[in-house]
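Re: Re: token formats

Sure, here are both.
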Amino acid sequence: MKADRFKMTAVSDRLCTPVLAPVMQSRWIIALLGAATVIQVAVTAMDLTAWQCPLKSTLGVACPGCGLTRAIVLLAQGKWLAAIHLHAFAPVGLAIGLLLVAGTLLPAKLRHRAAEHLATFERRSGMVAWLALSALIYWICRIMIYI
């Protein structure tokens, strides 16, 4: 009985391990990710050819993130329904992008405090595991619609 409870606890601990919070600890990592996000969104907003999806380019299958950048651009333009229709995770992508940019600008002390709060939230909610599972289900549904 104890071994089963230990196994379940170990699995839930892995699923609730913070992912975003450790990234927030390093200004260089969030600066690089934030800059890449801003550049990708800006290039897409200017209707220029942005980074193409390697999965779609090679196999012809859309990845879970296909359309996300265009949807974030639509969100920034205030076209919420069109953005959600294009990619349901657009608000999540925008929130994570804003978190990266804000984390880059925060002083070290505030950034570390924010990362601690984020880690607590990630542990308690299992947010990353839920988002990953939701994205997988969403991707499967999108693939089934287009087949």
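Second one below.
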Amino acid sequence: MKHFLIFAIKPVCYNSYFYFAKALAKALTESGAQIEFFSSEKEPLEAAERFAGRNFDGVFDFNSELPRLKMEDDSYFLDHIHAPFYDIILDHPLYHHDTLKQQISDFHVLCLDKNHIIYINENYPHIASASLFPMTGEDIAPKDDSYPQKKIDLLFSGTYTDYRQIEDSIALTPSFLGDITKKLIDLMQNDASLTQEAAFKILLPSLEEAEIIEETFPLHMQACFLCDSYLRAYLREKLLLFLARKNIPLTLCGNGWRKSPLADFSHIRIVDDISFFDTFSLFRQSKITLNLLPEFKNGTHDRIYSSMLNHSLCLTDASPLLREQFHDGRELCFYNPADLSLLADKISTLLSSEETLKTITQKGWLKAKENHSWLARAAYLFEIL
């Protein structure tokens, strides 16, 4: 029997980290593993010292800071636990440079994007492995396979961030970094296929400090994190404002929307903040769930599987990974963010054809149930291990 230790440390992003940790623990337990669970909801972090000297088949945490923790003798805390450590990172690795650079002895990373695997392998040679491991959600009514009653035509779930405030933050950074960040944004807006690391490499020959940057590439990627933040916020607002102006019925769920330009539209409904788990019930009430990938050029997002598992048609931009997993118009629908006029027409067509909507939704539910449940993720994790 496998014996795992799972940490749940950060109460952020609507408590999503706690949900992911508990869902993973439950799935591994149901798959026959023995689980020990440490939660900051119940204990202070100092209490984790009791695991020093123990043996496990794997230790897991999400967007972890545990690799930075040291004992009084300056040795790494995780090196006192006899197990491979798996950091499940939910963003681009550039946000986690301070953790990923730590030289713990048996360090592994699980990612949401195949490009992130390449990035880690190129920039952190001390990390023993990097593998794909997408997050998912769950069917809140698993015994009911019928198409549920719907109250919402189109749902978008996610946080609002004002890209103008990010512009202000960029202006306050040292001019050297601010100029690079602006050039990265321009490159990536002109070519939506570019990752930030690819754009940075295109930019390097034109920079006087190119040699220094190349030697410390992941550090400079981290320093230019506002590029990623800006693009996420800008593209999200652009997408939703376009639909609002087309009078597409839209429900928004997440922090900050009442302070956004979307709040000025009378036909836009805003659902105040709810817990991560409670968003599953909103998916179940929605005919269509709209997704925009957060600059994951060859990745995926838990919203996609969560909506499908709850009988909502997922309408998302595509990535090579998603095209490997699903067929457009069969289990979900893809759209091109570069041509939003086609998106508005597609939404209207889907909403006007109840039979087509239900057929795609139910095929998507079945595909997600078979391949993208937490039990399926647990089985895949055993393969990785």
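Residues 152-162+229-372 form a domain with the Rossmann fold fold (CATH 3.40.50.2000). The longest strand covers residues 3-8.
- S.
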